[in-house]
Amino acid sequence: QVQLTESGGGLVQAGGSLRLSCAASGGSFSTYPMGWFRQAPGKEREFVAAINWGASITRYADSLKGRFTISRDNAKNTVYLQMNGLKPEDTAVYYCARDRALRNVLTTERYEYKIWGQGTQVTVSS
Fold first, then answer.
1. How many CA atoms lie within 13 A of 15 on its CB side?
2. Residue 83 and residue 105: Cα distance in Å, rounded?
3. Which of 6, 12, 92, 107 would bridge with 120, disulfide CB 3.0–4.6 Å?
4. pLDDT in tens, 69-88
């Protein structure tokens, strides 16, 4: 069973940048789509970005396009989320997740992702 471990979160001022990493171990990673989600206090967990196995297809939440970039390095079993121009409303716990299926059509639905990391806190101060 693959395990996912996020890192790279922290406290940053508005306008700053962070790069989150999600390292996979113990199972299949390189053949599955991967996604990032986030959950702010009192809110539902929401889709942020996804990437297919070969990193040739990406998908983003409409509100985040142009600020966030998802990428992956299959040789390192790691997926990344580069976050630029951070805003206080980006404050949340960020989770990476592995799609339950081998497919090239990226999904934004939370229930389609079977394996989750423990999350990393991102706090953006104004």
1. 1
2. 23
3. 6
4. 999 999 999 999 999 999 99
